[in-house]
């Protein structure tokens, strides 16, 4: 048998046949040796990795699952206990499950075929409308129910009755190998689809009737433990537990490496982004109408140039976000080829928003605190557009070039956005964004202090300061500061606050950037019409 380290795709069928036959013949020796089990997991991982450029035939998948069936059997239970409690595992249990999921995506698209082993059942088919799958494995009555499928969807379902021997019940509070007091009390199911399924139910028969308080969980590869996010117990009676999972994408994914799957966040995101898109279009229309009357001096001109470019960049970025969400909804795992261009433009235009906010902060600082020098309008425009678009374009291009191809540029599951766990590409957005937010916060503090000193003896000083904060905070992107919380916490409340404030960013630009300007309000046709009506009424 050729060593796995030098294996090429053409050799996979023969290699897998040899491996599975060896596993069957040496069953007892393999299951009692931790080193041998680890070696086999490494081999299966290698096969899964190099198979990503080919289609896996049914015989190869049968041999793959036959080998897995041996190393997860009851005979290997003590071996996996030793691995999961010691330092030798190097997360081999997680690697095994990842290898199974990875290779299952490459299984032949032959419609409706099934593989049955002692403790493993694989069923692959194209489903339409509603779908129900019932386990045919011994001592298993597990059911998978998908109530509604809008489009024909290719689905692969793998049911394991012995995978509880492999996966530890890790504490959800840390990533070490200590086990918790919880127990896996049912089958483990892997579901892979080529399009997103928003609602799926699992009906398990519990294996230990003495255990109570069931939880519905999935294995979170990012955190390396079981996770209940997006899943809940719908019904529990007579040793049968019904779980329902609903995974959706929210706006907080822009700053957070955690994918918080909650329908409320999704609703907030899409409603907020819809309001923002409408607000940004209205903002651009108003700016077009009042442009001449509202930009008569250089300061107001540059301010409105910044507002217009913030609005345009945010409009395009939010549109790309909606497109990316649609791609993620249509297929899981996400198509790298379709997702990468969307992510590039999202990255570029969201960064452009921040850099134009940075330009606005510099303009305010120069205008109210330290007047460094006077520049012509042409020079100011050249500097502004260089910072506003060239800098983010350079960052976005370097990110693509430095992440070693599209496989590490974008996420592979849940959302269409910059990768975090393989390449840390998300930092190419987070670091510039938070740096500008921090700078703008300092500018805001300095300006407020300056205004307070100037107006120390004025009656309405406090009101002026409050108005300054209210107007500058959304425009200068300080609401993105909540993103720091989403980066370090999976608390729903933090992600909800971030989603509310930032999905409505376009609305804030309209209200605090455009309509808060007195010259804009005075120049609007509705205002002029109202003044004419009042004047005519007075004359009469």
Walkthrough of the structure:
- The protein has 540 residues and is α+β, with helices and mostly antiparallel strands.
- It has 2 domains: 4-247, Chondroitinase Ac, Chain A, domain 3, CATH 2.60.220.50; 262-530, Rhodopsin 7-helix transmembrane proteins (Rhopdopsin 7-helix transmembrane proteins).
- The protein has 17 helices and 11 strands.
- The strands form 3 sheets. Strands 3-4-7-11-10 form a 5-stranded antiparallel β-sheet, with no helix packed on it. A 4-stranded antiparallel β-sheet has the order 1-2-5-6, with helices on one face. It has a two-stranded antiparallel ribbon with strand order 8-9.
- Strand 3 (131-134) and strand 4 form a beta hairpin.
Number of helical regions? 17
CATH topology title of the largest domain: Rhopdopsin 7-helix transmembrane proteins
Q: How many beta strands in the DSSP annotation?
A: 11
**Mean pLDDT over all positions:** 77
| Main sheet specs | 5 strands, antiparallel
> Given this structure, which CATH class of the largest domain is correct?
Mainly Alpha
Which runs of at least 5 residues are low in confidence (pLDDT < 50)?
A: 171-180
Number of domains: 2
CATH architecture of the largest domain, by name, is Up-down Bundle
């Amino acid at each position: 048998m050729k060593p796995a380290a030098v294996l090429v795709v053409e050799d996979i069928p023969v290699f897998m046949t040899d491996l599975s036959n060896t596993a069957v013949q040496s069953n007892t020796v393999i299951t009692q040796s931790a080193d041998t089990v680890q070696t086999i997991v490494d081999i299966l991982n290698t096969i899964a990795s190099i198979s990503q450029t080919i289609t896996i035939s049914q015989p190869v998948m049968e041999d793959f699952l036959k080998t897995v069936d041996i190393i997860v059997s009851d005979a290997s239970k003590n071996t996996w206990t030793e691995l999961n409690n010691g330092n030798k595992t190097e997360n081999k249990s997680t690697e095994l499950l990842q290898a199974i999921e990875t290779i299952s995506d490459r299984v032949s698209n032959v419609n409706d075929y099934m593989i049955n082993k002692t403790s493993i059942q694989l069923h692959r088919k194209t489903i339409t409308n509603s779908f129900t799958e019932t386990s045919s494995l011994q001592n298993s009555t597990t059911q998978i129910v998908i109530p509604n499928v809008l489009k024909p969807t290719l689905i692969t379902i793998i049911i394991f009755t012995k995978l509880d021997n492999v996966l530890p019940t890790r504490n959800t509070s840390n990533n070490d190998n200590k086990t918790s007091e919880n127990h896996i009390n049912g089958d483990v199911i892997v579901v892979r689809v080529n399009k997103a399924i928003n609602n799926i139910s699992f009906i398990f028969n519990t294996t230990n009737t003495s255990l109570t308080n069931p939880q519905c969980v999935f294995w979170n590869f990012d955190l390396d433990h079981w996770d209940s996010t997006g899943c809940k117990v719908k019904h529990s009676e007579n040793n049968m537990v019904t779980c329902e999972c609903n995974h959706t994408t929210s706006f907080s994914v822009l700053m957070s490496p955690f994918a918080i799957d909650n329908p409320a966040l999704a609703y907030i995101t899409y409603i907020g982004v819809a309001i923002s898109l409408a607000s940004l279009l209205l903002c651009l229309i108003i700016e077009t109408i009042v442009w001449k009357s509202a930009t008569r001096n250089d300061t107001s001109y540059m301010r409105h140039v910044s507002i217009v470019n913030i609005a345009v960049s945010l409009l395009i970025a939010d549109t790309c976000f909606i497109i990316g969400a649609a791609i993620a909804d249509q297929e899981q795992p996400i198509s790298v080829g379709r997702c990468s261009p969307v992510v590039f433009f999202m990255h570029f235009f969201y960064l452009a928003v921040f850099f134009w906010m940075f330009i606005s902060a510099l303009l305010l600082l120069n205008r109210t605190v330290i007047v460094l020098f006077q520049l012509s309008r042409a020079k100011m425009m050249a500097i502004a557009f260089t910072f506003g678009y060239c800098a983010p374009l350079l960052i976005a291009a370097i990110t693509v070039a430095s992440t070693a191809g599209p496989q590490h540029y974008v996420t592979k599951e849940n959302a269409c956005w910059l990768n975090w766990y393989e390449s840390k590409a998300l930092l190419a957005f987070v670091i510039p964004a938070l740096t500008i937010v921090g700078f703008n916060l300092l500018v805001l503090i300095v300006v407020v202090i300056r205004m307070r000193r100037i107006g120390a003896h004025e009656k309405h000083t406090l009101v002026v300061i409050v108005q300054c904060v209210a107007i500058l905070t959304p425009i200068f992107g300080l609401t993105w500061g909540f993103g720091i919380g989403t980066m370090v916490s999976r608390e729903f409340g933090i992600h909800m606050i971030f989603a509310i404030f930032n999905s409505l960013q376009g609305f804030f630009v309209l209200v605090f950037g455009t309509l808060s300007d007195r010259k804009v309000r005075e120049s609007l046709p509705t205002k002029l019409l109202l003044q004419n009506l009042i004047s005519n009424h007075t004359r009469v």
